[in-house]
């Protein structure tokens, strides 16, 4: 299982598989997420628009099946980071069409799938894209000494070579000009060092973004946890609460847990 840990020094984080697996996870979401969003939205809108009558129930059942398939694709992508993610869908009470419809569209797990695949797609995709863009720019800046001389611009018939970090519409010596115009190898080396330091620091932002995305996906696509799990484990395990001396306290706690459940 890939570990997305922030408790590493910058060099160890750079060499860790979690950083690069996380980057690939975000990159793939820019493609896979669009495909799943389009499929889920099309299925949901088609099923709801054409399935308002009893004759349209098969379309709603098919639409729910497509949504489940899309969610399963995302669960498979989560597996390297958090293991197997169980959906926890409710089984159908019968074998008829109406029973299948009720089981799929009255299941809270199905609506959590919709919330992730459709409702949260835009903010997640935008967040991932912004972080990936900054990360890629910083990574490309490290290689600046190799290609800084390639970009050029022509000003009044004079060609200037160099990479402009800023706004230089009239060349490196023209006015106005804002930023840093890198035109020599020493300048490119200095810029690469600055980019490297910024890249090492920004790796923490990328890993934190991956962790946030994975957490949201797992909480919506997986089975919700039991908030009373700890109390139930105390009641079922051997200890002072299982002795006759504490029987009344144990019974009171058991009744409280039962009412909360």
Characterize the structure shown:
The chain is mostly helical and 261 residues long. It has helices at residues 10-15, 17-50, 57-82, 97-105, 108-119, 121-142, 144-147, 185-221, 229-236, 247-260; strands spanning 152-155, 158-161, 163-167, 178-182. A two-stranded antiparallel sheet has the order 1-2. Helix 3 (57-82) packs across helix 5 and helix 5 packs antiparallel against helix 8. The radius of gyration is 28 Å and the shape is elongated.
What is the secondary structure topology, with strand pairs?
Blueprint: H1 10-15, H2 17-50, H3 57-82, H4 97-105, H5 108-119, H6 121-142, H7 144-147, E1 152-155, E2 158-161, E3 163-167, E4 178-182, H8 185-221, H9 229-236, H10 247-260
Antiparallel strand pairs: 1-2, 3-4
Helix pairs in contact: 2-3, 2-6, 2-8, 3-4, 3-5, 3-8, 5-8, 6-8
Q: Flag low-confidence runs.
A: 226-234
Distance between the termini: 33 Å
Spatial strand arrangement across the major sheet = 1-2
**Helix content, binned percent:** 55-70%
Task: Find the count of extended strands (DSSP E, 2+ residues).
Answer: 4
Range of strand content: 5-15%
Q: How many whole angstroms does the radius of gyration measure?
A: 28 Å
Order of helices and strands: HHHHHHHEEEEHHH
Principal-axis shape: elongated
Count of folded domains: 3
